[in-house]
Structure formats: C-alpha cells, structure tokens
Amino acid sequence: MSASSSSGAFIDGGTENLISGDEADAVIHPLIPPTTRAAAQSSRTPAATCKTSAKKRAPSTVHSTSRKIRKLSSSAFATVKKGDGGPQMGQALDLVAYSLAGPKPNSKSKVWEDFSLVKRKSDNKIFDNIAACNHCLIVVSHIDANTSSMIRHECKHESSKPMKLTQFPGVLQPVSLPEEHRRTLVDGCVKLSAAIPGIGFATHRSEAMLEFIQMIIDVTTKVGRPWDAAKSIPSDTTISRKCKEVAA
C-alpha cells in the first residue's frame, strides 16, 4: 500500500506539475531535456522572424516604388521648368521659340494623330518627355512614353481635325485664339478705329482685311520670330507705284 501510495503521489505530483504551467513551453519542459528544449525554441524563432520581416518588407517596397515614381516625375517637371529645359507645361506652345516636330517615331498609339513632339528652334533639340496638342498647342507631359496625360487632355479648339498646311510651306493651318488674346485684339481694333478717321467698325472684319491680317500671321510664323513692322510694312510711295503697275 505504501508503495502504491507513493506511486500515486508521484503520478499526481507529476500531473500537477504538468498542468500548472501557464505557457506551452512549461508543459513540455518536464518531458524534454534542456538541450533538446533549447533547440526546439531556436527552431521556432526564425519562422516568427520571417513572418515579421515579410510584413515589414511589403509596405517598404510599395513606399520605395512610390518614392521613385514621384522622384522621376518631379525631376522631369523640374527640367521643363528651367529656362533652357523646354516649354512650360500646361501652357500654349510658344511658336517663336519652339515648333511641332511631328508624332513620335515608330509609335502605334492613335493619340499621336492629335499630338506632336516639341522641337526647340535654337538648337533643333526634340524633347521626348513632352508633347503638344496639334489643335490648341497646349503642352502636356509624356514622361517615360506615358500617354495618359495626352489621353486626358481636353482640347478646347472647335475643330478636332488634324492641321493642314497653308499656302506657305511649313506653316500649319491657323487655330482660334484663346479668350485672353481675343480681348487683346478687341482693344487693338478700338485703338485703330479711333486713330484713323473715317474707318468703319466693320472694316476690321472685311474679307480684304482678314486676308491681309492672315497673310501677316503666316509670314510671321514662317519667319519664326517677331519682326519690325515699321521697317517691313511698305511705304505709301511703294504701294502707290505697285497699284499703278497693276492697273496698267
């Protein structure tokens, strides 16, 4: 009986010790030698570490990619903003300093039917990171061959047809001026009417006047830079002599 009692006490004591542990490690410790126990703990640690590392790496990779994209976009826009970097983004192309260089070579995207690359006249440099609308001449981004800005562009020009050449080789079909420049023309017409006695208000839109003004615009575009009107417009003597030659 005493042996049985002591055996029962031993078993009860062992069972009590096994159950009393608060952690899983405390339950298995009495059954596992210390050396084996340390190896078991170390074998479980890398798995937890890997999971934690994976969770940390995922957002880090996303943030890193986002930073690279923002850096690329910022550098491209910064280049354009410099005085010698190219035309101003979102503004109408300055045809005095730049010209349309045609669609991107070897591109199969239909968006290039309405856009062209931009060429700087001073050194014939063609910018491959910007494009200009063929109709309203607004400059848009073309970073890394991305055409999303070109597709989103809403052309305010009344015609969506591609430009055609005028009677002057290299001069594109005229476009309508923005509202700001139209107001400037209105002010100019008022000054002209006030300065020349007897000129009618309808004279400015007469067929002969419109043809004359359009010719001046085409010549200016062909020259590619502003010209001095006082030194270029013929004198009254020259006009009189030419009229006599035509009449004869």
TrEMBL record:
InterPro entries in alphabetical order: Znf_C2H2_sf
Signal peptide positions (record): none
Domain of life: Eukaryota
Polar residues bias: start-end ranges: 38-52
Membrane-spanning residues: none
Sequence segments annotated as region (Disordered): 36-59
Name of the protein: BED-type domain-containing protein
